[in-house]
Amino acid sequence: MDGGGETMTAAQQEREELRIFLKQAVSDADSFKDRFDAEVWLFDMSGRMARFIKDPQARLTFLRSVHREASAADLSPEIVLALIEVESYFDQFAVSRVGAQGLMQVMPFWKKEIGRPDDNLTNADTNLRYGCQILQFYLQKEKGNLHRALARYNGSLGKSWYPERVFDRWRRHWYNGEVNIY
Predict the structure, then answer these.
(1) How many angstroms separate the CA atoms of 161 and 112, rounded?
(2) Residues in domain Transglycosylase SLT (predicted)?
(3) CA–CA distance, 16 with 57 (Å, rounded to integer)
(4) Rounded Cα–Cα distance for residues 43 and 141 (Å)
(5) Domain with CATH 1.10.530.10 in the chain
(6) What share of the chain has pLDDT > 90, as a percent?
(7) Catalytic hit among 87, 142, 164, 178
(8) Which CATH architecture has domain 74-182?
(9) By mean pLDDT, which of 66-75, 120-129, 171-180 is the weakest?
(10) At residue 178, what are phi and psi to the nearest 5 degrees?
(11) What is the pLDDT of residues 51-104, one digit of tens each?
């Protein structure tokens, strides 16, 4: 019961739980400039993400991880969300026909290449770290040209279908301001 003697509905209870969790997520969100930026971004993206991850707490935890790893790699978190939508449709256990794993569809050979064979690419944080750093590497290699970096990420350099698919998802679902794409 609340102070007025009325019982909270299930929707009100979920909203209150989300508010409490969001408050905690914001205070733990160290990749944001300040608390206000964290609140605005997490609230905005949580609404957009609801169709992909139903549980509000899991959604906010995931979004904090995406923001942290994208920011650490100097990438737009919104572009990373678009890439994940294209690569795995937010399925952390996705495996492609060529063996790429997880949210960002990272090839397992990278674990051996960097001397971490025991890393679990279906772990969201691990996968996000690998994927974001790989994309940043390609972005540097392509001198800031995100279109070419995305094509390289996908193994389709010289073709535009993959970058256009990512940009399409970004425009439709994740657009949150300008991103330099060329």
Answers:
(1) 30
(2) 69-159
(3) 12
(4) 34
(5) 74-182
(6) 66
(7) 87
(8) Orthogonal Bundle (1.10)
(9) 171-180
(10) -70, 140
(11) 999 999 999 999 999 999 999 899 999 999 999 999 999 999 999 999 999 999
